[in-house]
Specification:
single chain, six-stranded mixed beta sheet, 5 helices, globular
Amino acid sequence: MKQPRLRDSRNLITELYPLGQVPQQIITKIAAGIVYRAHTGRKDLTGDDWGDILADAVNGVHYAKPVGITDLATDTTAWSAKTVKANSPFSSVNVRLISGRNSPDFSYGIEDPHDDVQKTGDAVLGIWNGRVDIAQAHHPRIRVNVLIRSYDLTEFVMYEEYLEHFRISDYEWRENERGNFEGFHKRTGEKCFTWQPHGSQFTIHSVVPDDAIKFRVRRPPLLTQEAALENMGFDESWIEIL
């Protein structure tokens, strides 16, 4: 449906495409970026690889910074890019998204996280919400783009959701048998978060939507070193031995 004509429409946020409705030409560019990397010998994709591929596909800029939530952006749209591996991406129903290191000790002065599990869990979400505030100060709407990849880089599932704050009072925190903290939604009982005291790693449990985009690529033949050197016109004059 078209946007209605409104007197204050100048205040609307115009994004590259509607959330989750990735145009076919962008999916094709994404697939081409994956095939290219497999052709040049890449056995897997890193988070930075995925940021580069998505940025190239949307004609955006990949910031590739070690801190911060926003990974790439165009003039109108910003993304946090996440990629995870699965044995069978097409049948995945939920995935775990590593979402930074949240230290209640550094941020709130909580020296012993096990002393009050609920207080620590609340602090972990408070840190996340603060990071979202910082990111949204630059980009009011940020999409989380998730790519689930198979181990052989032939099957993929992709979906998007908006980056969000979490209502801290909605979650109950418990410590599991491994000493990690798990956050559960009080109303539904669904496990939503995991936080590891050792290393402070914060993980969000994300549900794969039914309308997630699925695509498959053919694994290309491997580019040999000899062929690559010949294609670039390499010769011994490029080498200076000192």
